[in-house]
Amino acid sequence: MSGVNEVEHPAHAPGAPIVTVIGDGQLARMMQTAAIELGCSLRLLAGSRDASAAQVCADVLLGDFRNLASVREAAAGSDAITFDHEHVPNEHLDELIAEGFNVQPQPEALIFAQDKLLMRKKLREVGAPVPPFAAIESVDDGLAFWDAVEGQVCLKARRGGYDGKGVWFPGQREELRELVSSLLEAGTPLMAEKKVALRGELSAMVARTPSGATQPWPVVASVQENGVCAQATAPAPGIDAELRRRAETLSIDIARELGVTGVLAVELFLSEDENGQADISINELAMRPHNTGHWTQDGCITSQFEQHIRAVLDLPLGATNTTAPYTVMANVLGAERDPSMPMADRVAKVMHVVPDAKIHLYGKQHRPGRKIGHVNACGEDLESVRRRAQAAAHFLRHAQWPEGFAPESL
Amino acid sequence: MSGVNEVEHPAHAPGAPIVTVIGDGQLARMMQTAAIELGCSLRLLAGSRDASAAQVCADVLLGDFRNLASVREAAAGSDAITFDHEHVPNEHLDELIAEGFNVQPQPEALIFAQDKLLMRKKLREVGAPVPPFAAIESVDDGLAFWDAVEGQVCLKARRGGYDGKGVWFPGQREELRELVSSLLEAGTPLMAEKKVALRGELSAMVARTPSGATQPWPVVASVQENGVCAQATAPAPGIDAELRRRAETLSIDIARELGVTGVLAVELFLSEDENGQADISINELAMRPHNTGHWTQDGCITSQFEQHIRAVLDLPLGATNTTAPYTVMANVLGAERDPSMPMADRVAKVMHVVPDAKIHLYGKQHRPGRKIGHVNACGEDLESVRRRAQAAAHFLRHAQWPEGFAPESL
Ligand SMILES: Nc1ncnc2c1ncn2[C@@H]1O[C@H](COP(=O)(O)OP(=O)(O)OP(=O)(O)O)[C@@H](O)[C@H]1O
Ligand SMILES: Nc1ncnc2c1ncn2[C@@H]1O[C@H](COP(=O)(O)OP(=O)(O)OP(=O)(O)O)[C@@H](O)[C@H]1O
Can you give the residue ranges of every domain in chain A? Predict the structure, then answer.
């Protein structure tokens, strides 16, 4: 008998395509579950053996995604190379493409998910709605923008932000001056956009294949807390059909215009125009499965993870009809202090009280604010669906039910 | 950078339970997809690195399930040990239990899924309906049974049969005599039961935890072709509520009486009683996820694979409401001759023509008659659902649409 440490060659399904994913987080992990059912399996370039996705893949290469040799080694022999984040240097990807590798999405598209300023310039160029914005290369640029938008300023790092990190809302002209000055000094390229009076946030997601086929999902409403996605509701309630169609069309147009392949998430601001009519503008693009698409695992015929695999392999896209009138996804974030009740006991408790909650955990150690899982709930009555998803996620986080929640009330 | 061959210790999620599965087939593979989403991951005792489940697990031990040392090594450090087949020798399991391992289901229950004669004796003892049967230890036993049931004989090997192998329907008394004589000579323990005039076949599935909680699924109708499950429809159409309830109750009672833990499938004969009323009797028990439960992956809140993991870990069971009015599962069996069109191209074609087909492939090489995958389709109109599932599975098998099927007719 030989243990795993003596096994040299991880096997993949005979005749099935191999997808290499650069990255080892929960998105790669959930791509693996989709891949398995499709009869494939992933090859992973992971930072460590105990990373979320590395726990559940047979074919794991340990290495650094900033290192061309590592990325090339992971890519060797695979049918498509894709990502669970946007941080692989584009020059490496250009090099791989030059060497004949099939990288999806490609750097020409990825650049617009990496740089918030280039993204906005491109979107404006193709006629997509974005709030007023400007490059901020000096304190004077900042102050001029402040004046132009009458102090309604949202300052953003052009690159590397996530979960609200790299986003600032200076309340005073003076505060903006100091912020810009110290950030530029620290070498952070900046842009500013007008602070939008938010009625809410939406997410329009779509998949696109290299051959050009597109398939959108129903638009969802998302709730952010401290810059982090806390909840998503599909389909977005209280949005009229025209606006829904507009958001959907927008996501398809952007995927086409920017040459996106795989899954694209278009995060949208929902606001009001001069006439008090609902209006949308674009906040952010992500070119991979996205937190606001996790609901598709349990509420949609084709999940975003399956669709991403299909898309990067240039396979026909799956149907995106919902399988329930409403699905609510609630994120499980690490609490400020991890409760003493072990996570396994919290899971058991939630399973007991909410037997239809779909619990998804990422195999991650607790850290305050860290995304460690999510819960989906489906059903007809939105309030009840939301209560269940929220309560389940809250208990997984705090080992307590939310205030006012009586477990019997389900 | 180090490749996978230098990795020594496969990691599991911190704080999450580890389930060891003895076996490496598609059932173990699909347990892994369920485990991943629950935040765990499986440890596998596999026969080879390229086996269906071994392709998709990080923690794989290679070894023989008939070897106690191998089974013990795979079990070490896991929270529960379970199976994707019934062939682990019970004396090994007794030994592991004596050593303190948590084996689910336990040999006391498993024996009734291993030996068709013991199963029937036990079922009769607890008052569950089985066709008339007898032990066949001699040619005379066989002939006496032939006379007692007026030639309506189904002869079965007591152990080791699957997919109709080990089941015979002798047409003549003389044929029975020869069969029994040669099988006994070859050392095959036998039993016989009355050949039932089948109206159809049903499957009643249920999960049970070590603590005694039970949760049934809706009863499904199955279609067998040459002794192999070809199709399952959930819920079983054309069955009245009383019979459905009876089958469901029966599965729960059997799980309790036999002390089954994990998933139990009760394969049922559907026949007519003296008054022409629909009647059921038991054909077979399986104590693990079962082919007739694959529909739950796409048509039910909790799949049989997730439920099995929950059950063997003694976690609360998930809801088993359906998520669609009808789900049809169609098996993909290896064709007599594998078509020249590569499987990957067949998959692409099916994805194009049936975008809502849920394709599940097992990563297996073609062999005639081998189960290599299945397709689920869901919807309101049973005929259309069945047509789509069947057509998709047929194309994956033959690289041709079924006769009379026009792709546009969807
Ligand atoms: N122009 C704006 N006006 C009003 N609110 C804004 C604006 N830009 C950002 N926000 C708020 O800050 C949140 C985080 O901003 P943004 O999405 O740009 O950050 P991020 O770090 O890239 O986050 P993510 O990981 O969600 O992409 C938004 O979801 C929104 O609630
Ligand atoms: N007593 C019977 N009367 C009529 N048909 C029978 C009888 N027993 C078995 N069959 C037919 O033969 C098929 C296979 O029999 P059985 O389920 O016992 O075999 P198996 O090899 O254990 O199959 P499986 O892998 O499905 O459990 C049944 O599904 C049924 O169609």
Answer: 18-103, 132-194, 200-409
